[in-house]
Structures are given as structure tokens and as C-alpha cells.
Write a structure and sequence with these properties.
- This protein is of the alpha+beta class.
- The protein has two domains: 107 residues, Aminopeptidase, CATH 3.40.630.30; 34 residues.
- Helix content is 43%, strand content 26%.
- The protein has five helices and seven strands.
- Strands 1-2-3-4-5-7-6 form a seven-stranded mixed β-sheet.
- Helix 1 crosses helix 2.
- The longest helix has 33 residues.
- It starts with a strand and ends with a helix.
- The mean pLDDT is 87.
Length: 185
């Protein structure tokens, strides 16, 4: 498998992957939205901010990234090629093209979303950490960030998010106990 910049000649094969797994991409439910995404991909191709992994003449995975926003915008791997290092190839290349002296961000699924474990594990493998809970296209997501190496803010943020998670868990348990007690009364 080899990595290439996406070029307009790839657009049909590129969109074939996106169309096949569009259930995994909120906001691409209609043909109109797929057409808009196609135009977006072509713009990214024109800026050399689209990469794909190919095996022979087949596209195995695709990624869009933005140098202007220093972020990973879209990552998709064909089900046939999952768990074969395709996503890692794409991540390695994108991180080499983005500014590592600044924060890099990506939006992904929340922890409680059934679609979340694989992409979250991938981003965490590269050192991304949880950031704000957000909504994109009316779908609940979570921002992940990769701080510049040696950033003190990263350590503080990790500590804060661990505390927030622990406090949220305590409130969840307390709320369940309150509901159980209310039913007994």
C-alpha cells in the first residue's frame, strides 16, 4: 500500500468509500450533502490537503486536513482495509504536514457513541486528548487536541478532564441512587 495526495482523477473512487460508509458521517445522509462533500474534497485536493492510501488501483483510505485550521477534517477507511495500518499511514502523513508547534485538533464521536471506540483509540494513540463536547451538524461530538510537545497546558488539561470525568461519574451514581430511593418512597 502506498500513500498519495488526492487528485481530481481519484474523486469517484474517493466518494465511493465515503458513500459506502456515510452512515458513519453525520451530515451526509442525502445526495445533496454528498454532492457538497464531493465539492469540498475537490477544493482540498486543489490545496494538496487531501491524502489517500492506495493498494494497486483501489483506494483503501482517505483523509482531509487543513493547514489553515491545523486540524484533521475527515478520515475514512474502507471496511475491507481496516486494521491493516491504513489509518495510521494517513495520520502519520497529516501530522507531518500540520504545524506541530501549535495545537492540532480533530472532531470525533463521544465516548458513549457506538461509533466512537476505534477513532478515539486511534487519536489517543497519537497523543490526542479529550477536549470540549461539541455538536456538529446536529450530532454530538467531542473535540480532541494534540498539544505541542512539552506544553504545560496539556498536563493541566489532562488533570482537569480526569477530575471532570470523576465528578460526572459521582453525580451519575448519586442521581441513580436518588431515583431508586424515590421509587421506594
Amino acid at each position: 500500500m502506498q500513500l498519495f495526495y488526492g487528485v481530481p482523477e481519484d474523486i469517484d473512487k474517493w466518494m465511493n468509500i465515503v458513500t459506502r460508509i456515510r452512515w458513519n458521517f453525520p451530515g451526509l445522509e442525502t445526495q445533496e450533502k454528498l454532492d457538497e462533500h464531493r465539492a469540498t474534497v475537490l477544493r482540498f485536493m486543489g490545496k494538496r490537503q487531501s491524502i489517500c492510501v492506495k493498494e494497486e488501483n483501489e483506494i483503501a483510505g482517505v483523509m482531509l486536513f487543513s493547514r489553515g485550521h491545523n486540524m484533521i477534517c475527515c478520515l475514512a477507511v474502507s471496511p475491507k482495509y481496516r486494521r491493516r495500518g491504513v489509518a495510521s499511514m494517513l495520520m502519520d502523513e497529516a501530522l507531518n504536514k500540520l504545524d506541530r508547534t501549535k495545537e492540532i485538533s480533530v472532531s470525533t464521536f463521544r465516548a458513549d457513541d457506538e461509533k466512537g471506540p476505534a477513532p478515539r483509540a486511534l487519536y489517543e494513540k497519537y497523543g490526542f486528548i479529550e477536549d470540549a463536547l461539541i455538536e456538529e451538524l446536529d450530532y454530538p461530538n467531542q473535540k480532541y487536541v494534540l498539544h505541542p510537545a512539552g506544553a504545560e497546558q496539556k498536563d493541566r488539561q489532562i488533570a482537569v478532564y480526569k477530575m471532570v470525568r470523576e465528578i460526572s461519574y459521582i453525580f451519575l451514581i448519586a442521581n441513580r441512587q436518588f431515583i431508586c430511593m424515590a421509587h421506594l418512597l
